[in-house]
Design a protein that fits this description.
mainly beta; 4-stranded mixed sheet
């Protein structure tokens, strides 16, 4: 069995860190997005029509989940949840109305 030398190990660790982990693929009918440290995680979900997505605020301050003309949560305190079932295909950009730099995307197929 071959052991990794320090250089090979460093390259493997760097590659793992640099790979984007911002998109999730859903084959289930229920998916979750966490709000933590002013970020929606994952930032993008690919789901099927009929899937329900639930956002959970893990931050110590309130956040919202808003997709213009589609859905809008109330201000979510720590551990509060908001769910929406996607019944139409399309791309749903969303953001936090309290912190507009926080954005996400749901792609419904």
């Amino acid at each position: 069995m071959k052991t990794l030398n320090r250089r090979d190990f460093s390259v493997a660790v760097a590659a793992a860190i640099l790979l984007p982990i911002t998109t999730a693929r859903a084959d289930d009918t229920n998916m979750e997005v966490h709000i933590d440290n002013f970020v929606f995680q994952p930032a993008e979900l690919k789901i099927k029509v009929g899937t329900t997505v639930t956002w959970t605020n893990r931050d110590d301050i309130p956040h919202t989940v808003v997709s213009a003309g589609k859905f809008r949560s109330k201000a979510l305190d720590t551990d509060d949840k908001f769910s929406f079932t996607f019944t139409d295909a399309g791309d749903y950009k969303y953001f936090c109305s309290l912190h507009p730099h926080m954005t996400g995307m749901i792609k419904v197929e």
